């Protein structure tokens, strides 16, 4: 007998949503979105084995059973598509985005193949259209998970195009919920609210209280982004009411805990916004949120225990622990947090190994435990808890970097506090130790991990940091070279200074990170305006704060080169333009920057015969202005290298020509003189060619090692790129450009400058590098000094933005 099986699978965050959306007060929030129900109608009783586990939240077991079914040849095409969709959704529920995407793309391939069959019956076409809507909703969802707004919008529109007038109210409500999610990701919060309202109305008409609950929860997020606290609270209250008549099951427990976590987060946002001066209305709102959080988390915990679902039990205990942490009930918070850790390790069906089991949520509770121990001044226990949090992050680092919900907050704001708070505890221990060196090395190890994951997060590529050199720079640091490593903490700035003797010195500067950030942003803003000297007070103040405390040490050790590992907002400025009241820093030191200690090789393997590929765009194309002096710039470089150079200029500088040239010849230097942009979104980072835009991923592919290239490109020069003022994410991309492109060094600019000044500086740089055989850092220093001596180009806006990134020798 054929049985109609309605397969319900809760997707789009489930454990992932709880594990990564709701952050402690210091971190902010990742966008929690859909939580939709996908309906799959399959006329085959053999498909029932995967249904019950998924409804119970046992997604690993369901996936294994679905994989077995797909390995048979007994399924129709529509059944296969449905199972691939469900498998993708289940993977997504577990926070495993790469296999989730693979499964959904399998479903997409099968679905598109059915569209080519003209003989398909009308009824089957209608069924396939419904399946297609669900498929494209899921693809839109995972695109948001991977922070790709444009594909998310495109997939959503494809789903809408397949929606028939006879579509069920439930599928319409699901689509509207996803539309609200996409609009919220695009920051159209008012429009998102309208979509959510329509979705809630249709979900109510369809009698699906769980979908209405999740849409109301998403609606609370949109209100939160608009700082409309009371409507956000009302949305959560309505979501809570929707669940009162729902039977106890996994979905209800998940939804209750989700509401509780949201209420807790808004509670924290209010505390952060109003600090100690809470208005009377906010005090009441805060009390309402506390009540919602306590009741929903307690109710969710009760159901989770009845259903013996360890992951949900862990969430409930953990968020109850956080609620008590907020209210400063430390003893109860500790008890609940330890319970959360215990149950996070009890997930018997996890896809993770025993060592990694529960790590997708363990890091959160260990972090919470560390904060509680720190609050009680149990510093050794706090350090161990923080270290456990960091260790728990590593097995899921790729998911944290590229697999979670669209967020306007970069890695540094979401997860950076774990590393920075641990570093602060380790520095505290260093103060008390007879030998602080081991503690300093632990601090560096901790911050280096953060920098590694931060670059992975920006480029959305785990492989970008695959060349990890285990801090060789500290062991093989050249003479007269100082390595400056800033750590930006809440209440101060720390320098760790290495002078090549194997020892690390610490200099603590009482400038809080927030104060430093404001000063740096003002400096950068004023520095770009070449018509005034308004930058000078900021340049002098930053010198007094950051360099003056180190000056005696640098002079004593006869330092001539500074290698700076800039952090956060310090990536957005050129240290060369800091001023001691008499002269700029570049007159005293050659300066280079590296993204991290572990991602810069200490030695140089420059080829005996240097070959340079010079590319440039002098003409106005694609609405970008002409760079007339690019002709002189490229000509001068070509004259220096003569027969060892090749030129692609204007019409010849196309994406295909560049790819072919790099494939045919193992150039050691690649020079590109064209407009370029580094954006907070690496997908919007590009270099302009005559026929299009060259992405960083394309550049990486073109110059990667192959049969003709057995060494990386020695130098990549980008002479007209730019980043926005104060955009730390874009500056992070600039800092990692050499690493991403597979070059040992990069010479690039922080902002677009006069192309005549650029041509002069670049020409002098290559003359010093090629003819005078100076190091790259020294060549840049001499080129910048060359411009500084010319009255036409003395303003640092014209010479300072050039940064040498990566290997400096």
What does this structure look like?
By secondary structure, the chain is α/β, with parallel strands linked by helices. The chain is built from 31 helices and 16 strands. The strands form four sheets. It has a six-stranded mixed sheet with strand order 9-8-10-14-15-16, with helices on both faces. It has a five-stranded mixed sheet with strand order 5-4-3-6-7, with helices on both faces. It is globular and about 80 Å long.
List the helices and strands and how they pair.
Elements: E1 4-10, H1 14-21, E2 37-43, H2 51-55, H3 59-70, H4 77-93, H5 97-114, H6 122-145, H7 149-162, H8 169-185, H9 189-206, H10 209-225, H11 229-242, H12 250-274, H13 280-306, H14 310-326, H15 330-344, H16 359-375, H17 379-393, H18 397-402, H19 411-414, H20 416-432, H21 437-459, E3 481-488, E4 493-498, E5 504-509, H22 513-527, H23 536-556, E6 561-564, E7 590-593, E8 612-616, H24 630-641, E9 645-649, H25 655-664, E10 669-673, E11 676-677, E12 686-688, E13 693-695, H26 696-703, E14 715-718, H27 728-735, H28 737-741, E15 745-749, H29 755-771, H30 776-788, H31 796-799, E16 802-806
Which key phrases capture this entry?
809 residues; 6-stranded mixed beta sheet; 55% helix; globular
